[in-house]
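Why should sequence recovery work at all? Because a backbone constrains its sequence more than one might expect. Tight turns favour small or flexible residues, buried strands favour hydrophobic ones, and helices have their own preferences. The token representation captures these environments compactly. In the example below, the structure is given first.
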């Protein structure tokens, strides 16, 4: 996609071609939480690969931890996209029978842990921190202390990669907490749904953050109609969204580019919209890259499938 002004500009050699970025000149990705809406990260990664953006590390939360681990482990973009588009409810969401019994309120979760754990194992190209091709850190919140713990390279690594990813994705009420050592851990978004501060603490020279959390307003009546899980998820979204806005508005760290796909109005488990989530992540990221590099309109030879679909829709 050419040179990206300010952010991703490479020095030109004598022939006018861009030279490779040196270590410490690239960008760290921050991938946020948002349930299935986080499959937008897959489309975003595709756009970044097409633009040849040099990524030096990843900070992920919840679904961002899962996608980030797959990327850091070297999963081919096409394989990552195929798995994202083919996910079905049974792959990750199976009801715990006890949750619907008379004493179901004492159940630790509505859904079983094993389907999500199996999906994580199948999604990761590697299962140890040492095998990752990019530095990765993911977070989870210890239920007892309420403190956020970071797992990964240069952080806590005494737990396997799949275990850490499950802990980061264990949405309270929906999935049972992850037991790691003496602690019980829940979804990292409980404390920090968009790890900007963590990337700053890791001395990221530039940060490109993808926020897939919900914003805007919703039809409250429809949320209530869907039941207590939908209500809980909406409250969780409101709280994490407020924290993200405060962080972004008061940002004092390294250069930050924020990508926010248009996902308002969608739920965390809208399986029927996974194709849209992937496509919208691609569109929003591509748009941001063009904004950063207005002089580099794609040539006819760089035309993408999205370009072709848009052209057909206008004809």
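From this structural description, the recovered sequence reads:
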């Amino acid at each position: 996609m050419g040179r990206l002004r300010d952010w991703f500009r490479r020095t030109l050699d004598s022939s006018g071609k861009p030279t490779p970025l040196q270590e410490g000149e690239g960008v760290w990705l921050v991938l946020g939480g948002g349930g299935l809406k986080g499959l937008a990260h897959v489309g975003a990664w595709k756009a970044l690969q097409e633009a040849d953006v040099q990524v030096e590390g990843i900070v992920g939360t919840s679904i961002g931890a899962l996608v980030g681990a797959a990327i850091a482990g070297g999963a081919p973009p096409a394989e990552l996209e195929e798995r994202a588009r083919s996910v079905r409810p049974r792959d990750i969401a199976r009801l715990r029978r006890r949750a619907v019994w008379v004493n179901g309120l004492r159940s630790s979760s509505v859904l079983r842990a094993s389907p999500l754990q199996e999906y994580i194992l199948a999604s990761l190209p590697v299962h140890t921190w040492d095998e990752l091709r990019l530095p990765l850190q993911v977070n989870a919140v210890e239920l007892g202390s309420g403190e956020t713990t970071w797992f990964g390279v240069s952080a806590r690594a005494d737990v396997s990669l799949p275990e850490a990813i499950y802990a980061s994705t264990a949405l309270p009420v929906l999935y049972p907490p992850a037991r790691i050592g003496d602690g019980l851990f829940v979804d990292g978004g409980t404390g920090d749904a968009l790890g900007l501060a963590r990337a700053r603490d890791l001395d990221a020279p530039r940060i490109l953050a993808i926020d897939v959390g919900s914003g805007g307003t919703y039809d409250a009546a429809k949320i209530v109609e869907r039941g207590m899980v939908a209500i809980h998820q909406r409250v969780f979204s409101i709280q994490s969204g407020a924290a993200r806005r405060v962080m972004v508005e008061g940002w004092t760290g390294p250069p930050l580019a924020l990508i926010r796909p248009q996902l308002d109005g969608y739920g965390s488990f809208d399986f029927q919209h996974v194709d849209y989530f992937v496509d919208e992540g691609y569109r929003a990221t591509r748009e941001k890259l063009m904004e950063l590099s207005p002089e580099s309109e794609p040539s006819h030879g760089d035309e993408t499938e999205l370009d072709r679909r848009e052209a057909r829709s206008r004809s």
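A few observations help interpret the result. The two ends are 26 Å apart (CA to CA).
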